[in-house]
Amino acid sequence: MEAAAAKEENQQVLKVLEALKQASHDLHSNPIPKSSDSSNSSAIKALLELQTESNSILSTDPCLSTLSHHLTSLKSIVESLDKSRSRHGLRSFLTRRVTTHEISRVAVSIESEIQAWIDRESIDNLVRALNQSSSSTDDQSLIQMLINFEI
């Protein structure tokens, strides 16, 4: 029963991380929100909400500590960008350019960390399934598991 609960929890985390991976990809593709408030971007909102909840969600998996760090960096960078929008001039313009590049860079790092976690979980699940079934199933079943893993 405990294994089933852990598997269900991992599936829920996987769904959340897939959505966040898409949000970070969107943020990388378009790091400059159209509004004057950067935190109104839906991708940034999703990632910052995870950053707010990261202590409870991400602390249970040590493999996600780097992701938590990147989310904290994103929050700091977005706050810096919002502050620079209130100022005008060449220096503020250059600061905004550098900051949007930083947002894009951090978004790529977030996406990469999420994908690494997903890959680790997928491999762990495959290994677990192969170990559980290797003694009781035929080669055809094992091949089917590998095909499902590839998809």
Q: Would you write up a description of this structure?
A:
With 151 residues, the protein is mostly helical. The protein has one domain (2-112). The chain has helices at residues 2-29, 42-57, 65-85, 90-133, 139-150. The longest helix has 44 residues, at 90-133.
Cα gyration radius (Å): 20 Å
Uncertain regions spanning at least 5 consecutive residues: none
Head-to-tail CA distance between termini: 27 Å
Beta-strand fraction estimate: under 5%
Helix/strand class: mainly alpha
Task: Name the average pLDDT.
Answer: 76
- Shape verdict: elongated
How many individual helices?
5
Question: What share of the residues lie within helices?
Answer: over 70%
Report the order of strands and helices.
Answer: HHHHH
Please indicate the count of domains: 1
What is the number of E strands?
0
Characterize the main sheet: none
Question: Can you summarize this structure?
Answer:
By secondary structure, the protein is mainly α. The chain is 80% helix and 0% strand. It contains five helices and no strands.
Quick tags:
151 residues; 5 helices
List the SSEs and their pairings.
Elements: H1 2-29, H2 42-57, H3 65-85, H4 90-133, H5 139-150
